[in-house]
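seq:
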Amino acid sequence: MTTGTRWPVVLRVEDGLEPQIVLRPLTRRDRRAWVELRSHNAFWLRPWDATRPDGSAPRVRFQEFVRTLNADARAGRSRPFAIEVDGRLVGSLTLSSIIYGALRSASVGYWLAHAATGRGTMTRSIARLLDYAFEDLGLHRVEICVRPENTASLAVVARLGLRAEGRRERFLHIDGQWRDHLAFAVTAEERGSTRMADRVLRAPRDHGEQTSTSAEV
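struct:
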């Protein structure tokens, strides 16, 4: 029986590694921590954050932002998670553009605070999210799109063993320009019976880890 229609959902990364990672819904109580985290990491995230071609930057109240995230999740369009490490908010990870029917596909976007990088946090978090996408949501294919310049995020998808699908020219508006992206994906058949978290445990540990993909809009 699938539990994919249920929301809210809390996912724990139970791979026996440290630090302890929990993926959970963002709540209104997170406002102060979220605002401070984004503010302190603004320069760090700017090269990877999505922008609007018309240059507008609409301000949305945090409460409205959380309400929209939960509405989309309950409607089955996305699964937006805050990343919590040892009880501290450090970023977000979203399974977005969820489509069922004949496609059964979704995309992954994320960002991570500078202080939390370099410890395997995002790789382990994505692995847990992918297992959830296949096992609980019953999806067939999940993709991650990464800017070619984002070498550390390329290391993340390599460590996860995702298949390269090629270049998408001028795919997304990032930091004021239309930017090319490299697409990577994994299907249910490719994953097979081996959980993504187990792939990470067997992967080499000499990769870095970047803050974000630009798919997080």
